[in-house]
Amino acid sequence: MTKLNQALLAICFSSVFSVSSHAQYRPIGASQGSAENTPIEAQQEWLPEVHTPQAEVVEPDPSNIVIQQPYVPPEAIPQAPVVTQETPAAAPPVEIGDLWDRIRKGLALSDLRNPRVASHEAAFASEPVYLARIVERSRRYLHHIVEEVEKRGMPMEIALLPIVESAFNPKAYSSARASGIWQFMPGTGKHYGLQQNWWHDERRDVHAATNAALDYLESLHRRFGDWELALASYNSGEGRVGRAIAYNRARGLPTDFSSLQLPTETRNYVPKLIAVRNIVRAPERFGLTLAYIPDKPYFIAVSTDKHIDLKRAAEFAEIPVDEFLALNPAFNRPVIAAKESRSILVPAETADIFLAKLGNPDQPLVSWRSQKLSRGEAFEKVADRFGISSSELKQVNGIPSHKKIAGGGMVLVPVAMTSQQQPAHIDHEATPESSVASPYVAPPSISHTVKRGETLSKIAQRYGVSSRALRAWNGLRKGRVLAGQQLTIRTRSSVRVAQAVPRTQKVSTSKSADARIISYRVQRGDTLYSIARRFDVDMVALKRWNNISGKRGLQSGTRVTIPSNLKS
Q1: Which residues are catalytic?
Q2: C or N terminus of the chain, fewer CB within 10 Å?
Q3: How far apart are CA 325 and CA 322, in angstroms?
């Protein structure tokens, strides 16, 4: 052992013995007072006061010194932040609920103890195809109706009422002249502010009619204090229900719905709605499945102060004309006459596109204008002058085929498409003489692609129409067409493109819900075409069903039967 090591060892032993024999303990930071006055944190740490004897200081060889760092656990070592280029996670898709679930949460009517309920349940359960058709039609309107019913705090069964009233057919028209998905009578509709004129019938307007129907039902509920009685009154009239209640009350009889003496239709009306409610509430119980309807708006209402063709509006909304008319069945004419910023319903997905195109000043909007007939001017000559058949011109203007227009009458006639800078004259106050407010149905049409070498006259000859008509239908100011150009050709009697029922096909006579029979009394001025159009059925099948020959006409007062399965 070297002398240096011996000296260091002696110092260490001396220090140890000094601590053990002479150490006095005191708290860190303690005063001369007692420990009771010492802060808690100070009381927890005690160190010895050491008296170390002086020792010879020996300077060590710097070359032999090893500096040791104190041990630090790895978890205590601060880590530098790691910077990485991460791709932001895609937002999870927003799940849209099922509208049927929302409806189920709002069902509030009590179960009706009436044997008719089970009968209607069985009828719907036996016709899943018919029910599926109703569901498919309802997806355009049901979300809006549900929203309005919720706003008013009404039972959600009310939103299902159009299933009973019209099967959600916007063109539904009864022999009693009720119209629209809510089946408003003319008088009741006027009472609740629904305008009905040559241009527009608000009984078929989804916005206006829904608001009026809910107003009416709320009024009935306030009067009778019972939703079943309110619904019965909606069907048969509050006066009739009031008299039935008074009759039973005078005889000490119950005055609930099932106890009243009401028409057969009304006695089935409320049970039918309850049956629909029960199916919606638990379709699996009846072996049925309701197609998913997203719980989001199907359409958006937009306003415009410009006249616009129905066909043009459909193009702007990027939907077929039939779909546009299904959303806007209230319009009676092929042109929407601007009045009081009347709303137009367009799909929510294409509303921005519609508004952008509508606001483009270079986009032509109108291909119809008001035309005042000269005294003594033949209607047929007017039609020929504007490239349209006499029958089609009458149909557009709602004029019965047997009627004649006197001099000075106003009619809509086709013209070449005009832009907003040159708007066509539309007199929204004009009502042509002897006209009716029937809904407009776009005439059947076909699309022809111009081939190389074809001329307008050759195409017109091929389809049995005039060149003037082709120009009018397609907004052509000149008679020149280009290869690849698409031309619209409206169906006329000489163009056999209408969908007819094959001769081998028999019309169903079943009494199923999908083949319901409608009895219609022919009104003065009615034609087979107008009746087929009104009820949305195939005209050929309608003639066959009623044994009507080609030369036989319809007489006012006679009845025709219309099965609902004759859809064209």
Answers
A1: 165
A2: N
A3: 5
CA atoms of 344 and 303, how far apart (whole Å): 6
**CA–CA distance, 346 with 260 (Å, rounded to integer):** 44
- Name the token pair of 128: 């899943």
| Beta-bridge partner residues of 412 | 370
**Closest by alpha carbon to 322, among 210, 440, 438, 416?**
440
323: tokens are: 């779909």
CATH fold of 513-563 reads Membrane-bound Lytic Murein Transglycosylase D; Chain A (3.10.350)
Phi, psi of 16 (to 5 degrees): -60, -50
Would the CA dihedral through 95, 98, 101, 103 be positive or negative?
positive
d(CA 205, CA 184): 11
Q: Tally Cβ neighbours within 10 Å of residue 59.
A: 5
Domain 99-286 belongs in CATH node 2.40.280.10: no
Tens digit of each residue's pLDDT (9 = 90 or more) over 138-160:
999 999 999 999 999 999 999 99
pLDDT tens-digit map of 328-360: 999 988 888 776 557 899 999 999 999 999 888
**Phi and psi, residue 71, nearest 5°:** -75, 130
Contact in structure between 458 and 499 (CB atoms under 8 Å): no
pLDDT tens readout for residues 32-87: 444 333 333 333 333 333 333 444 434 444 344 333 444 444 444 445 444 444 44
Q: What angle is formed at CA 442 by the lines to CA 328 and CA 494, rounded to 5 degrees? A: 175
Using alpha carbons, select from 171, 213, 537, 173 the residue that is nearest to residue 326.
Answer: 171
Q: Please report, for the chain, the start and end positions of each structural domain, with discontinuous segments joined by +.
A: 3-64, 99-286, 299-443, 513-563
